[in-house]
Structures
1.
Amino acid sequence: MHETMNPFLTYLLEASFCLVVWYGVYGLLFRRATHLGFNRFFLLGATVLSVGLPLIHVSWPAAFAGDVAAPMFLERVSAQAQRLWLPEVQISATRTGLPLPSPAALGWGIYLAGMLGSAAFLVYRTAKVLACIRRGRQTQATDYRVVQLADHLPTFSFFRYLCLAPAPDLDEASQRALIAHEEAHIRGLHSWDVLGLNLVKICFWFHPAVYLIERDLRELHEFIADRRTVASQSPTSYARLLAQQALAGAGLSLTHSFHQFHIKQRITMLQKNHVPLAWWKGAAAVAIALTLGVLVSCEQDSTASAEPTAATTIAQMDEEAINQELTRYKEKYGEEIEYFTIPDAKLRELGVALPEATPADKQNIRALFDRLHELDQQNALNQSPSDEVFLVVEEQPAPVGGMEAVTSYLQENLAYPAQARRMGIEGRVFVEFIIEKDGTISNVKSVKGIGAGCDAEAVRVVSEMPNWNPGKQSGQAVKVKMVLPIMFKLDDKTSSLFSHPTRSFLPLSLLPKDQC
């Protein structure tokens, strides 16, 4: 699906979409039908497919991949990366107060709390049922254990346990019907269905469809058990028994009790004649399963061979077409797509985390920038040499006094924003600027930042930086574009808003001026 999204969040969204679609199909086509066995299979299968399909990934060939990044281009970019990037400068500060969680961290915290709460509630309910079973007197039947309940609870079944409550007001025929009903639950393995749904509910505790599926599945269990019971009972007398027990106490959750769910609906279902499943409904279910499989499991295979004309197409693009393509990629991956032209090893060295992109898209982005660079050079032939901005030059620009002077300047002038310290924001800000022919700084901007005032502060200080020795090409001073990474880093100590921390004299680090 979407490459740039957190994988687990992508999974939750895809699985949630499947749950909504499947339950909608069930409600429209099957919910009030009499083919109970199929309905049970449908709900269980829909749940399994919903949580399983997003985990399966099937690739198909890319439509626009191609080998568009030639070795010569990669060599040029690699050389450019070594010349364009300046050494990183780290800015350190002490936190002020407790850091505020980001919206993403807060959202994941709420989700994990919901998971833990759901899991704890499931353990609690299971322990409560097992405690009731342990307190009862047990005897072995043919294929299950009979438990004479000591608690004031209605008769229920739980896996291989049939828990009988005293029922002095029922005659022998009614008691046999009640036991036959619970035996149907035991032999139908209905408790496994409920347990499985509750395990799914731990991950999808927020999703209404999971609760609706569990409700309908438990209702189906009662319909199935009722139908099997009346096979050896009179439907009229059994319906009368259901009506008599309608006001009995509620049973334990996770169990199957004779008194659970709407008695009126159960009586109505008993009176319906069995209608076979219509073929078109089954076909519709299969078609929907295949469609969902394609939507959530199939993805473009960036490694497969693609159209051989891709490189030729990019080579023939004009500047307007290239900018349109780059705009499309920026909408997909963000404004920092130019950094896809930097080799991955250099990005890892700098600690730059870019959105994940397919190799085909990376190749196309590199080819587009390569073509744009060629067009810029062609335009430069028709312009004054002073208008051209170089990325790679024979003699690189250098700050007066070397990088030590730059570090000293930043230590004197750059302040760690109070908002960033308060929110616990840290990370790298990449500041791009041009060294003019006379060594002045121009066109300063943050090309990748962290917000909370850090980007603006970095741009402000770099804009006021002293003049550099300009870069030279063929002995002439030229304009050169540079990138300076600035690392904003908070230490591990948390101070109050009224504390007075002192300056740290670590090399290549800086504490904000307002803490001096």
2.
Amino acid sequence: MESALEALLTALTDGAAGSVGQDVARELAPYLASAGATGPRSVPQSLRSQLRTLLSTDRDAARAVAAAMEKRWPGSSAGYVSGDHIDFEGLFLGDVAGSVLHQHFHGVPAPADPVPTVVGSLPPATPSFTGRKKLLKQLEGFLRPPSPGPPPPGTVTATVLAGMAGVGKTALATEAAHAANDKGWFPGGVLFIDLHGHDHTTITAEQALGTLLEDLGTPTEHLTTEEQRVKHYRNQLARRPERVLIFADNAASPEQVRPLLPADARHRILITSRTAIPQLNALHLPLGQLPPKVAVALLDQVLRLADGMDHRITVEAAASTELAVLCGHLPLALQIAAAQLVWDPRKPVAEAVAELRDQRTRLTYLDDGERSVRAAFGLSYQRLTAEQAKLLRLLAEAPGPETGVEVLRALLGCTPPPAVLMALERAYLVDRGSSRTQWRLHDLVRVFAAHITADDPSCVAEREAARERVLEHYLTRADAADNHLRGSGALGCFKNLDEALTWLDRERLGLLAAVEWGEVARHTVRALDLALCLTEYLRRRGLFEEIVTVSILAQGFAARSGDRLREATAWHNLGDALQGAGRPAQAVEAFGRARDLHRARDDRAGEATQWNNLAIAESHLGRLDSAVAAFVQARDLRRLTGDRHGEAMTWNNLAIVLDEAGRKEEALQAFTGAAELLAELGDRTRAAETYRNLGKALESAGRNKEADEAYARALAIVRSTP
């Protein structure tokens, strides 16, 4: 009996039953060493139960132990191996109740060295997989077999591919796993399990271990705890002679995948997750959206796989680029959009683009019956707490592509809790922007969250209150910045002009987007004020088309509000921007509308200004007679209102146009009248300039003596200027 006990202890110590058996051997050794004095019955019941569980539930371990015993001491296991079963009862368990251990292995006449089953459950690769070259290279380095010899300390055995729903984590991991498998890097096989971490059928670690153990050929009906399954799972991997790759898809938490990590440094595990899992001491590879060219290439690849002669993506290059943008360069959305085109081979790409442009129906289009962007995002959303979900919804209402702390505070009505923001970031629902204090959402996540809000009246009320706070915040700061630009009024929250311009530059896109909220009656007045505050800044930056956009909105807001003065101001700003953008014909119409509104208000000064603007636009169109008539109207109105300086300037403008029209005498009279009036008013700079213009006109008419006199007057004025 002693030789059998020694054989058992040696077999366990040498690892015949893996690391679990070695743990048991260490605990058994003191008791078996004293077997001569007290007998093996001194072994505690808990230790007997542990060994009983190991040898009764792990068929391969039982075989390996018996084989190792026989190999070490031939005949030591003869009494325990008989025909189709192995019976370890008599070794030291004695007559303890429930100690009969029979492992039946039909067709196995005698123990032999175990031959592990080669497993292979890898899902098929995606034929249209495109791009991700850098990440594939990193995964290749991770999966490559190590150099001969013991693995170096600190060998990383796990990699986590993390990213938002639909970003292509599973496809990338599958591609890398197939490539490694095809190279023979995992002769022990590949184990695949979908953990369903983000749906209603989430698999626990214990359940996952059960599945993996079954795949490894180990029954689990007697392994009723996670601890037991972890030990047997790692024991199985440690005893396999060849490398094994485990692919754990759709993990949700470190607790779900930590028990699946192999203890043996030869093996590797690939994990995909929509949540960052930094707690595993694993290689962490975050996935983002595809680069634009790769996204278009993916569309082309899908269509050509279905029909090698389908060239729609390359033929409609511009539309295809926009289609990829509308899909957010997200692989799932791109695959669905491409599938819709495959289903309708006569459909132009431009038609698909037109269907996707409307944000209200975009997610409906990105659903092919089997795959759905809305459903994919919904699984991530349902895991959020109420506080996290609210912040995501409100972030989706942020007007700009990036949102800073100030706007976030306005959206929420309080300082955003850092922990909540971090939770959304770890879930890949929000991302850092151009700095660590700026946040952004993927375009399709923004669309998804907006849909959530639109479908719930309480969320709509929450949204409108948030927009009101943001408009108030923007208006306060934009008004202060505008005062700096115009050099008037209180300077407010900015120390100087540079600080005001820096803020305007950073928030420009958000400010412009917030103006659009004025379409809702609740926000019309604030949005109108904001639009008018932005005009000078946009003019200074030369952004005339953006002035056109906000001025059209402002004109509509003012008209609905019945504010004729601000409506006229908006038309004026529009005309001025159209003029700056080189669109004088449209500027004429805008200035005409502004003129009519001022006339209706009996505002002669305002009407005169618009006549002057109208005349300038007409002159740019080459319609000089119309320009002259408009300048005359402006001059007369300014004279009527007592605006003598304005009258003088209009005289000057009129003189220039008359000269261009070939009406020389009239031009000379106008130049003279303007110069004299400006000199009388003390505007020496403009008076000198006008006398020079008069001199040029006289010179071109051949009246050189009079021209010299005009030039002399100009010089005298300049010299007399302090």
3.
Amino acid sequence: MNKWIRNLCGGIAALLIWMAIGQSAMVAASEISVRTAVIVALQGEAKVQPAGSSLQYDAFEGMTLQQGDRLIVGQGGAQLRIKDTGDEVNLGEYSLLDISRLAGGPQGKTTKLTMLSGMAYFAVTDLHGKPDTFQVVNGNHTLDVKGTHFLVVTDPVTGASSLSVVAGAVSTGSSRPASGGSLNQQPPIIIYPAQQIYLGGSEPGGPSVVDPTRLIQNAPPGVIESLLKNAEKIQQENEQTKKSFEEQANTPKQPANPNLAQQLADLNKISQNLSNLVGNLAQEAVKQQKLSSGQVQQLIDEANRSLGGNGKIDLDKVQPLDPTAGVNPELAKMEQLLKEKQEELNRQQLELKNAHQALIQRILEQQAKLQEENRKAQEEARARAQEQFTNQLPPQDREQFLADKRKLEQEKIQRGGSTPPSPAPAVPTAPSGGTSAPSNPNPNPNPNPNPEPPASFTLNWRYADETSVPLGVQHTLAFGLTLKEGVEPKSDKLKVKVTLSSNVPEAVYAAIGYDFEYDSLPPTELNLEACGTSTAASCGEAWLPSEEDAGYGIGALGDGWPAVISANWGQIGNYTVTAEAFQSEGDTLVSLGKQSFQFKVSEKPTIGFTGGESSVNLAPEEQLTYAFSAKGENIQPSYRLALKATIYGEAPYADVPVTLYHNGAPVASGIVDGNGTAYLTGEAGVLAALLAAGSDLTLAWEPYAAEPGTYEIGLSWVYPPADGLDPYPFSEDKNVQLIVGTL
């Protein structure tokens, strides 16, 4: 009995402990809030890339975003609002914003946004006295905000970024290690209203007074309108800032912040700038025709209804901003020189980029000209051969052949010349000691007058611009499949069938490999019977194998490029890969349509190194660069090419970036792997165009601490390797001796 009572008491005690723990866990969980943002306004087009996904979806007003999502704005603009705080972000066109962190809990709310490109106007609620944090990351810099209105603008010409504060204060600091790998320990710079700072380098320079002309020039009308709608709040906050400055100026204690000390020293000038800031921006918006004068006046009138005393804005009495107010002249001068230097560098890079594009265009035009000349030469050769052949035919056969030829040409004219030309009529066998009966022409029938309806899905090819493939390489075709907007699937799985076709008469589809990234099936081989050697209706077709033959999950199909077809094309010609998707409706498979990808298999290119020293002498602390020249033959504009660069030895250079330059501009890049090798690739067509023309190039490794000694650099041009595949060489190896000396 006593034992039973002890067990009962023990059970009750355990239950009470479990309830206490569970209750505390529930309380802790209840203190953690799920925070979101919502798109409240949208002009033009925009996309959203959800956290952890490579897919992008059309954005719409009212759409909810969470931590990890990315907002991609095209032409137009977007306005984003943090739901629980009311903080707003107005994005201009071609802006990219990552919602890096939206967290809430007992320690306060944390908002962290990463501005990748474009421009944005931020209107943040007052955070003074609160544990909440609001940060904006732009390039190498983290901006800490305490309730303010400010703009981050990326100049579309120079690519340089700048911060302009309209109200409140923003603290700027480096968010990444400076050159050399050590963190910068300098205190952050606080930017006050009517000030701006250039964010072009690893460390910001000194603040300067806002330039209304430049600011409005880079801001779209929607952003300017949003800023002026907040004119009342901006004026009120700036009036409070003026009072705060006056109070601090009357205290004997010297502020630790040097920028604040400069503000207090120029208090009269600062007050005038704060009073005239919004008016200058409004006048500039009308001057640059970003907004109409009536629209601006209406926004100012709405702000003035709630403003009293000296805070009201009179556009007829606005004074220009004093560029010397609250600014250290030496720092401002250094800031301007740094800005001009970076802008000049960016302009030079832009000019080089335009020059490269012009070079590529000239090369493409030359190739098109050569192709047209080759086509004409082939036509002339064909015409001469046909004339020579017809001249040796007996008169009766010759007349029949020419009549058939005229008939085919007339049929083509009647079809309007919009269909592919029919083949030449069948040629009779050349006479041998007598006459022979002519063969009857066999023109192709008219094309199908009932084209197939468009597919209900989109195929996303990993290398959609690779329309030419070198003969003999191990070629991979990786793709994903996403349903078009509005398509409602009958089931959550799809089956996919692929068909290969070619203009090669005896095409052989052998050793076609296949793998799906998100299943447990091992890589397999598709059994595709060549249509050129078969009369079967299913020639060139294969169902892509899936687990338990149930098909592929729609989400898995659309996540990147999970389906991978690989082959070594052994015959030159034109090829087409067609994918057809099916969904199950009961026991019936219903097609969602077809989509195709066409490519051409051409001659393998040959690339030679036409210049470059056989050895390089390097000091231990010196950056390794190597200049050489290269030229290729049989290079198609869409060939995928890579430079394989390897340093053999024990030098610590793993994970080091390597860049290939042409005339000072980067054209390809890569990262050194654990074997000392980097595969340098660039934008589609750039390397192909440069090698086709023959170009001078420079290879540069990032600085690393190499031990004194002798090493060897190996260079070769290859087809970029896919996962698990070796690179296919297009050139002989070039070996260079690297001698690292002593200090």
